[in-house]
Write a structure and sequence with these properties.
Layout: H1 2-10, H2 29-37, H3 52-56, E1 60-63, E2 77-80, H4 91-112
Parallel strand pairs: 1-2
Helix pairs in contact: 1-4, 2-4
Length: 118
């Protein structure tokens, strides 16, 4: 959901890579549904394993609880967003998680692109 929002809201102004330390085999259908409510289609996203190369290619690395399993490199900006896992939650709970993610993505964009009025 975060990558979907970032891609949508940044409108090409940032390059978005999405990966996880323990990616699921497929996307959560509830996450796909609540993002579709926002007009953002994430159906084609594929869960990927976070690689050291992906971290090296990034200026900012957003993690969501991967702890010591995430590659750490000096000079990279890291933020760990504590968010509830949408797995197994009902649609109302997933909407709430989605809304928290949107707020964080908007704050990140405002910080990364302040002159652009993100």
């Amino acid at each position: 959901m975060a990558a979907g929002y970032l891609s949508h809201l940044a409108a090409g102004r940032v390059r978005v890579l999405s990966a996880g330390s323990e990616p699921a085999a497929s996307l959560n259908p509830a996450a796909v549904a609540v993002m579709a409510e926002e007009g953002i289609d994430i159906r084609e996203a594929t869960p990927e394993l976070l690689s050291p190369d992906a971290v090296l290619a990034s200026d900012v690395v957003i993690t969501m609880g991967c702890g010591d399993t995430c590659p750490i490199f000096p000079g990279k900006r890291y933020e760990d967003w504590e968010l509830a896992d949408p797995a197994g939650r009902d649609i109302a709970a997933v909407r709430e998680i989605r809304d928290h993610i949107r707020a964080r993505v908007e704050a990140l964009l405002a910080d990364l692109l302040p002159a652009a009025g993100a």
